[in-house]
Structure formats: structure tokens, C-alpha cells
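Example for tutorial group B:
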């Protein structure tokens, strides 16, 4: 039986680390694509040469030619400019939209049955670009943001309470960025909501740190942005898709009336399986949570409107 095939577009830190995680898990063969000649080939060869040491037989190759990506099961889009200190996600909008449109058109042509996982920022707006460029249905275009945001929230909860991250679960909805909506009453330690374990001011502090998680790392690195945790988030989604695990993961999904939003990519819990996004996992929100979610969706809509001008 042939192995699954994943194309990772963009051989920068996020793309290369994603390729490494997928290959080392033996999940799929990986094709690493980039516009820069030699970059994907060099990183692909380097990853291939690590295989005997870490004991996997997945093939990793680098290329500048989308013909080499044909018949991929999943296409991961990481290409684009990274956020620099002082740069908002919105600043990236038009530049990255052009890049994403170009790469998705080429990749979708080579793999018309693939599922696209978008990572490029501003994430929710780039999902719109990818869906339009590919012509794929909503089930096969999904954005990776909520898994990352939830992982950050879980990290901060575990550090605050001095517990294992394995026993933490976190719920984050909405757009990826400052308007995201961490749902603390659904975020738990061993099943107990953190709102019962921490005072309200500490819960708020953790929510705020989560919403600014990307900016915090950009500020520390000074010359780049996060990549280890984003790559781990992509891996979790790709694994659920390829192994048909039906994981309920927070993802940017094109909503069609769910949570009161229509025609917009926004982060919600979704079931991921072999056909992509199999259903939106709709939960009851309080009036305040719904208002925050609607504000977050409105911020995404503003970005999409800028793109369409």
C-alpha cells in the first residue's frame, strides 16, 4: 500500500519543522516546495539523511517545481512573509495574499483531491484566498490557528497551576490574533474548569497572554516568529486527517450559519477526518461569549473586505 503524501509549501522554519515532524512520525512522504532554488532541496536532503538515525522510511524531497507535488493527500501552506517586531498581522495582508493565491493555484492543479491546511498569516483571511484560488469545497480548506492558540493556553494554565500539560484542555474560538476568544469555562484541568481553580484576575491574565502569544515570541526573537509550536499544531491536524482519527480540534473553518456567522472563516471546534472538516462541533455560548465571538468574526470580515477592494 503506497504511503500518504503531504506537500509542504514554504521551506522556512515552520515548513521545515512541519516536514520533520510528519516524516519522523512515519505519517507520510513529504515534498517540500519553495521558490528559492536550493533551499527546499537542501533541507529535504538534510531531513532524509536524518532518517537512518531516527528510524523512519518516509521519503523527504525538496523541489521548486509543483509537478513534483502531484497526487498529494494534504497540502500545507506556510509560505509568506513572517511578522517582524512592530508589524501587525494586517500589515501582512496584501503581500501574503498574493503569495498564497499563487502557490495554492499551482498546488491545487497538481493535487485536485487534496485537503489544504493554511498556516500563513493573517490566517483567517488567507483561508479565503486559498479557497478561492483552489476552488475546493469548504471541507477541504482548513486553517491552523486554534490548535496553536489552545496549546499556548494549555501551557500557561499548566505553568500557573503546576500541573502536567497532559491534564489541561483549553478552548479557543474566533479569529487568530488579538480578537480570539479563549473560553475559560470550557478550559479544564482533569475535567475541572479553570474558573473554579483560579481567581478571575488570573484567568483574565492567562487569556490575555494567550491572545498575545505570537507577539510575545516575536518580541523575544526579534528576527522572526514562532515555529516549533505552529509546526506541532499542523502535525496534529494532518495526523487526524490522514489517520481518520475524528479529532475535535479548533480550526479556522468556513462557516455557513454555525455560531451565527455565515460566509466567513473563523476558528471553531471541528471534527477532522479523512475527508477533511467533517462537521463543526457547535457549542452553547453565553451572551458575553457570543458577543466576543461576533466581534472576532467582524474583525476577520474587515480583513476580507480589504482583500476584496
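The residue assignment follows.
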Amino acid at each position: 500500500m503506497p504511503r500518504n503524501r503531504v506537500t509542504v509549501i514554504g521551506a522556512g522554519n515552520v515548513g521545515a519543522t512541519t516536514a520533520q515532524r510528519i516524516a519522523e512520525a512515519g505519517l507520510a512522504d513529504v515534498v517540500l516546495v519553495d521558490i528559492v532554488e536550493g533551499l527546499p532541496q537542501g533541507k529535504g536532503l538534510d531531513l532524509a539523511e536524518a532518517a537512518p538515525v531516527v528510524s523512519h522510511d518516509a521519503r523527504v524531497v525538496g523541489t521548486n517545481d509543483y509537478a513534483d507535488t502531484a497526487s498529494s493527500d494534504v497540502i500545507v501552506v506556510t509560505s509568506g512573509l513572517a511578522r517582524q517586531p512592530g508589524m501587525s498581522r494586517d500589515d501582512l495582508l496584501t503581500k501574503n495574499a498574493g503569495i498564497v493565491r499563487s502557490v495554492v493555484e499551482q498546488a491545487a492543479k497538481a493535487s485536485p483531491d487534496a485537503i489544504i491546511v493554511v498556516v500563513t498569516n493573517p490566517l483567517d483571511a488567507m483561508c479565503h484566498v486559498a479557497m478561492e484560488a483552489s476552488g475546493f469545497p469548504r471541507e477541504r480548506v482548513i486553517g491552523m490557528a486554534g490548535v496553536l492558540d489552545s496549546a499556548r493556553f494549555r501551557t500557561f494554565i499548566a505553568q500557573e497551576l503546576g500541573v502536567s500539560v497532559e491534564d489541561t484542555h483549553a478552548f479557543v474560538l474566533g479569529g487568530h490574533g488579538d480578537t480570539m476568544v479563549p473560553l475559560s469555562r470550557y478550559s479544564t484541568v482533569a475535567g475541572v474548569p479553570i474558573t473554579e481553580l483560579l481567581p478571575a484576575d488570573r484567568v483574565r491574565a492567562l487569556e490575555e497572554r494567550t491572545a498575545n502569544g505570537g507577539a510575545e515570541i516575536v518580541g523575544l526573537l526579534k528576527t522572526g516568529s514562532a515555529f516549533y509550536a505552529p509546526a506541532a499544531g499542523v502535525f496534529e491536524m494532518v495526523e487526524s486527517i490522514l489517520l481518520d482519527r475524528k479529532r475535535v480540534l479548533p480550526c479556522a473553518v468556513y462557516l455557513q450559519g454555525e455560531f451565527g456567522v455565515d460566509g466567513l472563516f473563523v476558528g471553531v471546534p471541528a471534527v477532522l477526518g479523512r475527508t477533511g472538516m467533517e462537521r463543526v462541533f457547535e457549542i452553547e455560548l453565553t451572551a458575553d461569549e457570543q458577543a466576543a465571538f461576533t466581534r472576532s468574526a467582524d474583525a476577520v470580515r474587515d480583513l476580507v473586505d480589504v482583500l476584496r477592494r
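The mean pLDDT is 95. Compare this with the pattern of hydrophobic and polar residues in the output above.
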